[in-house]
Amino acid sequence: MSCSLLFNKPFQVMSQFSASGDKKTLADFIDVAGVYPAGRLDYDSEGLMLLTDDGALQARIANPRYRRVKTYLAQVEGIPDDQALRSLTAGVELKDGRTRRASVEAVEEPAWLWPRHPPIRERRDIPTQWLRLQISEGRNRQVRRMTALVGHPTLRLVRVAIDGWSIDGLAPGKYRLL
Fold first, then answer.
1. How far apart are CA 34 and CA 99, in angstroms?
2. Of the candidates 46, 50, 112, which has an alpha carbon nearest to the alpha carbon of residue 74?
3. Residue 139 — pLDDT band, cuts 50, 70, 90?
4. Catalytically annotated residue among 28, 31, 42, 44
5. What is the pLDDT of residue 40?
6. Domains and CATH numbers, the chain
7. Known catalytic residue at 31
8. Alpha-carbon distance 16 to 12, whole Å?
9. Handedness of CA 117, 121, 125, 130 (dihedral sign)
10. Which of 100, 71, 89 is nearest to 164 (CA)?
11. Minimal CA–CA distance to 130: which of 57, 63, 48, 73?
12. Segment 154-175 mean pLDDT
């Protein structure tokens, strides 16, 4: 019988169980033996991770050839214009190649979103905008690199869904078994 769980990774937690200096890891939050992350989420990103002991499921989630859709909320610096949004949607040329088409839209800050500790840096003269992005690949720091390329660095990044699995009702640092 396989075991899988959804975890809401807090900000500044490593996406691994093994110790990494004084940084928090998955072991600080998850007491289920034998599960491993299906893909990673950067130390400075937050949100949904799927962990499993099912190797086939792990491969289907983590390998880009399966085109699993991952949904992110990104708070970016400045207000992207239509051209920036069209560029992100069409795919942008990163150093490691062109990204696939994405779904990108400007959205309001979600009322349900928890505060981040520490909060993002605020600049009095530079507004921020939230974007909802759906991508079907998962390159290293991909969303951050995409938004920076169009002139709007990501200040906060929260993964809210992986395919049909959602972060709904899952507080930061908590998990639920599937």
1. 33
2. 46
3. confident
4. 42
5. 87
6. 4-63+164-177 (3.30.70.580), 69-162 (3.30.70.1560)
7. no
8. 12
9. negative
10. 71
11. 73
12. 97
Share of the chain above pLDDT 90, in %: 81
Q: What is the pLDDT of residues 75-96, one digit of tens each?
A: 999 999 999 999 999 999 999 9
Residue 60, token pair as written in the block: 């289907």
Report the predicted TM-score, pTM, of the whole model to 2 decimal places: 0.94
State both tokens at 16.
Answer: 């691994």
Per-residue CA distances from 22 to 19, 117, 140, 172 (Å): 8, 17, 23, 20
Dihedral of the CA atoms 79, 137, 48, 107 (nearest 10)? 20
Q: Exposed, middle or buried, 165 (CB in 10 Å: 0-12/13-18/19+)?
A: middle
- Which helix H or strand E contains 105, and what residues bound it? strand 103-107
Separation in Å, CA 150 to CA 26, 69, 82, 126: 33, 22, 11, 16
Distances (CA, A) of 67 to 22, 56, 83, 92, 124: 35, 15, 25, 17, 39
Cα–Cα distance measured from residue 92 to residue 174, given in angstroms and rounded to the nearest whole number: 34
Helices (H) and strands (E) in the chain, counts: 3, 11
